[in-house]
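TEACHING EXERCISE
Course module: macromolecular assemblies
Task: Read the component lines below, then compare them to the predicted structure of the full complex.
Student: A.B.
Group: 4
Components provided:
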Amino acid sequence: MNRFANTLLLIAAAGLILLAGAQHEGLRRIKTEQSIVPADPVENASPLVAFTTVALGGFRGLVADALWLRATRLQDEGRYFELVQLSNWITQLEPGFGPVWAFHAWNLAYNVSVKYSEPEDRWRWLQSGIQLLRDKGLVYSPASAEIYRELSWLFFHKMGGLSDQAHWYYKRRWADEMESLLSGPRPDFEALGQKKEKLEKYRLDAVSMKQVDEMYGPLDWRLSQAHAIYWAAKGRIYAKGFYEVALDRMIFQAMAEAFLRGRLVRDDEKGIFITSPNLEILPRVLAAYEKALTEHSEEENIKSAHEGFLREAIMIVYSHNRVDQARKLFADLKKRYPQHVDADTLEEFVPGGMSDYLDRRAPREALPLIEGALYQSALWTALGEDDLAEGNRQIAKLYWDHFMESAVSEEWVERMALPPLKELAEKAEKQAAEFLMRQK
Amino acid sequence: MNRILSIAAVTLRSAIRSRIVVFMMLLLVFILVGLPPAIRGDGTLTGYVQVLLSYTLGFAGIILSIVSVWTGCTAVSAEIKTHQLDMVVTKPVPAIQIWLGKWLGILVLSFVLLLFTFGSAYGGLRWAMTRRAADQKDLQKLREQVLVAREQIPPREEGLAEQADNLLAVRQAEGGIPEGLTAAAARRVIEDNLRLQANSVPGGYSRQWIFDIGVLPADRPLFLRYTFSAPRDDIEGMWLAGSRDNRDQAVRRVTEAPGGFYTWRIPPAAVNRDGTLPVEYGNINSEPVTVIFPPEKPPMLLFYHDSFEMNFLRVFLVVFVRIAMLSAIGLTAGTLFSQPVALFFSAWIVLLLNVGRYIQSMAATQTFFPVHDGPVRVPGLLDKLLHLFFAALHRMLHPLQSPDVLGALAAGEWVSWATVAAEAAVKIVIFSGLLALLSAFVLNRREVGLPS
Amino acid sequence: MAENASNLVIEAAELKKIFRDFWRRPKVRAVDGISFEVRRGEVFGLLGPNGSGKSTTIKMILGLLHPSGGRLRVLDQSPRHVKTKARVGYLPEHSYLYPYLTSEETLDFYGKLFDLNGRERDKRIEQLLEMIGLQHARHRMVGEFSKGMARRIGLAQALINDPDLVVLDEPTSGLDPIGCRQVKDLIVTLAKRGKTVLMSSHLLADVEDVCDRIAILYNGKIHAMGPIRELLQEKGRSRIALPELSPDSVARVLALLRKEFGSEPELDHPQLDLEKFFLDVVEKARRGAQAEAPKKVSVASYLTGEDRLQQLATAPAPAKNAEPEIPAPPPKPAPETDAKLSRLVKK
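Instructor-supplied answer key:
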């Protein structure tokens, strides 16, 4: 009886081993597709990480899962202090798996940071996310397009965007750090190459910065858009398939942002810290869009992004009093996207974008737009930006004229007319002066 | 007593000689020395201290758990195998005294190692505070919110029970209870809904909670910890702490994202003379949005109870009690089974104790194999069996699970003497006592002289 | 059993031990229905080849195994009773002592298990260490001992509690002839003092020297049991020892015997006991080398009863209701004399 039972068990064991072996090929294929490399030692890994990845073997995933569950639980309970450490360990347990890095960095920079009211606390968590990707992720997984993309996104959206309450704080802090590193908006890249140690802290290298600046600039490196472009460009060489499109999109979106808000006007004595458009890079932005449209002609969202950019670019350029350039852009917009453009001329187009407010014929709808433009004009005048000042004044006049064109009768004029433009301009000057006084 | 102490002394010496124990002790030293420089907090001194406390004590606790289970398993089973226990069993020593002696020896070892661990962690903490840079705000937060023992109290109960009863009666009269739902379940649903409504604050409205504090030290601030949910980010709110006629009423205007846990520092002068503190939240969002304070996570008030050092001591005792229980489990396993089986069995018990949270959630689950057709999923036979199994497992394990005292220590939350006493009573007196009796019974009946 | 119950130290009736496997199926019948008694004050030998059931029987007597059948009483109680264990001393075949304890610590540990107070314990430890000749090694760890030293310290721990029953498994194994002699003398001394000794040994000469009664086991059953003198007696034959005779005298005696019995008598020279011969040679060699005479080994006074006699001499008269002391059995003649007498059996 014993012998019989033993024989049965042996046969069962052999069968199970064969079955397990049959799964091996499929598992190996999945691991390769998902870039989960189980036992290969990770390049550039610290001895501890290298040891752990090999010693734990297949249990790495289990340990990473257990830590992840803990991190989720702690986060739900509001106990954030462990999250940086846990994120570090989870990512280092699966160092070759790009999505893990991306998720944890995003979690720290977005989910956790907003749970703090103080801008300084939020900044710290944003930095934790950036450092996780830049200082660890790219070390263990230097060819991961996903990590580059996520890093670029953090600079572009979290730091450079407007949605976070503390975004101005982020911008100031980053500008301070870059100011001390680069000594100005555009460094001397040759001289910068000597500061290898300082650059290493941010994992920047002067040669790549110069190449990016030449290709996509001139960029103000004190602002986050330049760094978003830098990391996206660096990751582009590793990108395949989806990430080719994604990183290209990151580049031209960041470039568009650099155009719209990529010039820093700073005067610490007067308390001025304002971002304004960087018109110098407009040709390069347009070229980047052209390139993306050519390479990814099937992507509809690139076309719509291009159209949106052209619309904004026209307004920006016009507000800088570069009417001819604005006219050219308008012609290009009209040519490429005629079904979306109702206006026939530039002068119709500029107020046309605000038709919801201007065509309602209610002063309270139109006035804020006009006052806003006049305020901008007064502010730029005070800051010595004459082109911007004149451009905004022109826009205000266009708005005022467009509204007043609706005058149908004297009675309407009496009831609905706007105050004279000069009066509004004086009021705006006063407001701008008060604002500047408050910043001191 | 002499016999117990003699056996304890020999057990201790034997344990120290075990290669596994020596290795674990070296690992312990490595962790205590090597972990502090290697860990990362959230960039602040406070965060670092919190991670330091959690991780050094946590990892050390794991190692000491392994040591205590291992020595427990081998204390009896190894001696049975080598026949050293023959020389003790043939002496006039009752089996219970043999077991207690061995347990005591393991406890002494665990106590010394634990003392070393906690001492090192405390020393590391003080050293870190002198060496790491921190601004005033960070230091203040550390002193007021971490290196203290704060008692945490919920707001006064609302008394929704009567309302729920009335509403249930009305629904029953109207025939509004769905079929398949028992009266008790329906009442639970009604009460949950009432509680949710009470904790929902529509735009333009406010909600008040009363905290019964009692007497407080005049110089210690209080902390309100709260969370809320809302359908969008950037929720504006106004908090008021203290009565309206109190000139020291604290006011705070905030714009916060839902889902986070926020802490508001309230000066002690806001507390009323009668020891109560009313706290009010006003929803001041310009757009209509309702803010909901989850009933299961109401705003909690934390205030100073006693010092961090006393709390540290209490946490030490709770951890020691847990380790004592684990060693009793190992010792019992070693009495029941041979060495490898005892180790495997003990490891399983320890694993189950550590995944208690997940077993609890499984025990609360009614349907394990959900079917997504129809509005209500009725549990099938397999669901019921699984539910019964996990519920029974949870019932057995729940009393043996330890509260998260390390988390409380790192969060500056008070661990009471009552907690220590309850832990000691359940884990040592009752549970380990039962194990001792079981082991003595088995050891009396076990044939120690069987050929190995 | 017609014996007075208090005179029986071990009573076994139809004792069985069956070893079973995990599924409770019988695998080995190690002891198969043996019955024997061991009386107070006697030295009882348990003999048999390997696997005969000796060790199993001993373990059952000590409570380390449970009988599968039959009846077993030790000192009129269950062998597993704590009171029984307080009066039993055990020397196992192999050393199962804690190797990291010194000899002093070992005796101290077991002394504590017997609940001996500190002073008494220290006294006994001193005496035992002297008795077994290990004073020089009192601070050495038992794990470093040779086999002989390990046997000695094992014997000492078996006697720390002044037991009424001493169970010795291979007591002389690993000892040199001098050591063997000392152990055997000790066993005799213990027996004289009324202690009961149960021993198991493969060294039959030692068993012959000290045991009063023996049982021989084979395959779990007793195949021979009784007083050793009777068992070894060669019935139907006589032997006469004479001083050295001249060849003529020898011839005349042989002729007389031939005539008397009609068969050819055997003539040989009596053999000396090898142990005695060895000891004599060693003693002569020692005297020749003028080496220091080995210390006369003194048996611990608490074992010989000297302590007790002293106590009795100085103690006040016992109370009326005090339990009478169990009288020691009458002293037995020395084994040598016994052997000599056995050789002078008349027809």
